[in-house]
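Help wanted!
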Amino acid sequence: MENRPLEYDYTIAKMFMFTTIVLGIVGMLIGVILAFQLAFPGVNLILGEGLAEYTNFSRLRPLHTDAVIFGFTLSGVFATWYYVGQRVLKVSMAESKLLMVLGKAHFWLYLVVVASVVVSLLAGVTTSKEYAEFEWPIDIAVVVVWVIFGMSIFGLIGIRREKSLYISVWYYIATFLGIAMLYLFNNMEIPTMFATSAAGESGIGSWYHSVSMYSGTNDALVQWWYGHNAVAFGFTVPIVAMIYYFLPKESGQAIYSYKLSLLSFWGLMFVYLWAGGHHLLYSTVPDWMQTMGSIFSIILILPSWGSAINMLLTMKGEWQQVAASPLIKFMILASTFYMFSTLEGPIQAIKSVNAIAHFTDWIVGHVHDGVLGWVGFMIMASLYHMAPRVFKREIYSKSLMATQFWIQTLGVVLYFTSMWIAGITQGMMWRAHDEFGNLAYSFIDTVTVLHPYYAIRGVGGLLYLVGFLMFAYNIYKTMSAREVENHELQNASPMGA
Amino acid sequence: MFHWLEKHPFFFAVGVFLVISFAGLIEILPSFAQASRPVIGTAPYSTLELAGRHVYIKNSCNACHSQLVRPFKSETDRYGHYSLSGEYAYDRPFLWGSKRTGPDLMRVGNYRTTDWHENHMKDPASVVPGSIMPAYRWMFTKKADIDTAFAEQLTVANYFSVPYNQPVPMKDGSTAVVKLGNSVAEANTIALEEAKVIAADMKDQDVKDAVARGEIPEIVALIAYLNSLK
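Answered by r_m:
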């Protein structure tokens, strides 16, 4: 029996940490540009009239959502998997040549996909389905990357020493399976290049174009079954995996309740998939599906809060750490935003509330308190925890981290408060009638009234981006600092003053 | 059971998959066939309209405009009759959108004209003061992709039996036939005939000249599509 501790191999984790940061900056920067375009339409011409096609709001918008979801967040998920996976399974990547090759193939193919997505979306090559905009050649590449990710997960599990799968691994497995199922079914499409005309011509038109296998209402139903659950398995499930690992590690506290984690996991798996219908309330999908979507969205509070409460109770008796450690601050605020966002979502899924909220900025606000407050904070916290262990160097600056925390928190608060007001204002104005029963406002009235809120939102987003740049700088200085750590760190990350 | 599952990753994964998959089966499958039947008055897109729909998608118009009128008085007052499932039977993909930064366009063909769209796409704020919509001037010079629209028509006619070259019942009891070309050349001719009708109502001389030369700028296709939304 060997006595020395395992040496984990973080090569792949480091690569994905790099893309997390770079794509985070890209996605958030585009987000800030979009925000200011809505407040000040002149920003649509930010690179001049000649490039207007590529810088206007509508062309950039899918690039923003995809860069944040599939760039920043997924990279974060991959980076943490290649770190957490080895440690909870007690096996090193270096023990298997195959796993190393798969890991590297995973990274480089992922980069190829990212590059082709950027080019295609800028060129306007899109299927229009939200978060599934990619045309079929890219879809096939995405599936290949995903299969490699799956082989990485199950390969590492296959050679594990720790027989019981830790809670985080459950969530990573679910992420893999959930996205695989959703992505495949939502992107069922027929390339049009195979069509033959009556005159016998084939290969007509552009080779990358395709047409959806589903039409109208069915397409909407499949799309929002996907869209809602891409949020589930991209923004919730893997981020819960992170907090289940990093919070106990950083705080030195054991998870509060195993039973609660069981209930939350299986509950989340079962309930989440039903809730997609809440994107389609008052649409033409059958009424019973809308009601199911509404009801299950409310039930979804239980497993969501189960995880969040489990996290908060993990800190029981150790709350002084929240004041002392900026890293714990990030994680506690993340789980608080998780609770907040998973309460707000179900409220918006109530039919009468949705009648006002749907199509307005309140939905945008909801997405962003979840993504900025929960996903963003948790991924940054994870990378902050990983950095000293991966680079064997002390975190460059604790005070910079604390400053970043407060700047970003302010940014998130400005973001969602302004979007609440904007959304509810617009929703109420759309439905307002005067005393004669005529519509009280023309549509443009409900747009111009939003200007101040759009401006505030832009500032909020900008603050968050500034904080993210501070994060990138802090990590960069950490990895380029002289070597200081020569022992395996246990709990709290070391922090320079 | 859970302890056992946590030591057996394969069965754990099977368990997760079963739990996450049946919501989709129960919600999506039962009404699948019913939900895709067209209502009377809904006709397939012509080649030019479909090319315009591609322009709409290319520029993510759906990022800011919905195509779904909900059954509320405030919406039917503003946009017209609430949406019916069968009206979307030929929409692949659906374009309901999720955000109304601008107004709904489900029935925009009922209350906007070619002339209005032309001015609006060139300079939105000159038509709607205070508008935050960007201008789409490149659509006046870039050419619409008629060939791809034709390929899509062939595909949907083949795989989904979309009724091209067949009488389709209209609301007034008459029937309409949407033509599908026999060849790429014929499809382009059909699209050009339609484009000439649109261009006749437009003022932009470059667009008129282009159509006279047999070319179809994106804006012409887009307006054909927007006019078809009723």
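OP: Thanks! One thing I noticed: Chain A has a mean pLDDT of 94.
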